[in-house]
Write a structure and sequence with these properties.
234 residues, alpha/beta, globular
């Protein structure tokens, strides 16, 4: 990876730099990614070269974004993602992989990854992807976004198991439903904010409130919920 010509301050909550952790089993690649992100203004709080080490360190340093390879010794990347996102739903995971296989992409998204970028991406594309991932926006190498949305639709078309005493569906506000509908259509938080003429932060708040009301854990489950109810066709 080449170093970008200008560094910029990447800020997280409270104005602090975004905390990023890089996980890859190739030391030279891992160090290069960490260096590029640090020079771009991110706070690279840790690196790891295997699955178990990634889970341990991430639990201690609690990064905002985990840049994660899938092919790891000791524990597959998808399992790392599943465990860490399960323990901390606020964590954003950007998979950075050499594999563009559809099965790998879908498995990563189902495990809780926010985005999926191929290692052929440029340094600037990686920086933009980390920034967008931190904001909760899905990021995919071109050509993969349609694949993921198609899988959302396929999952939603599968019959859900019947529940004998299913609780009444939570009531969403009109604006929460509006935001949910646009999320289901595949729009990013930035695009939703522009469409509804509200701030990016307000969109994030609506999504978090909706996740809480519906007792869902991530965007994957949220999109499936919306498609099951036909909100993406409205």
């Amino acid at each position: 990876m080449s170093t970008p010509s200008t560094a910029q301050d990447e800020q997280g909550a409270g104005g602090r730099p975004l905390r990023v952790m890089v996980v890859d089993d190739h030391p030279m690649w891992r160090d290069a990614v960490a260096r590029d992100l640090a020079e771009a203004g991110f706070d690279v709080v840790a690196t790891a070269g295997d699955g178990p080490g990634a889970v341990r360190r991430a639990g201690v340093v609690r990064p905002d974004v985990l840049v994660l390879d899938l092919n790891l010794p000791g524990m597959p990347g998808v399992q790392v993602c599943k465990e860490l996102v399960g323990a901390n739903p606020a964590l954003r995971v950007l998979v950075l992989s050499a594999s563009g296989e559809h099965a790998d992409v879908l498995e990563a998204v189902k495990s809780g990854a926010t985005g999926y970028l191929l290692k052929s991406a440029s340094t600037q594309e990686l920086i933009e992807a980390v920034r967008s991932t931190a904001a909760g926006d899905p990021v995919f190498t071109p050509g993969l976004a349609g694949l993921v949305l198609g899988e959302y639709r396929r999952l939603a078309s599968d019959p859900a198991p019947a529940a004998s005493n299913e609780p009444k569906a939570p009531q969403l506000t009109e604006r929460e439903t509006e935001v949910l509908r646009l999320v289901a259509k595949g729009l990013s938080y930035k695009q939703i904010a522009e469409r509804l003429v509200i701030s990016h932060r307000t969109v994030q708040n609506h999504v978090q409130n909706t996740l809480g009301k519906l007792q869902l854990h991530n965007r994957v489950e949220l999109v499936r919920y919306a498609i099951e109810r036909g909100l993406d066709d409205v």
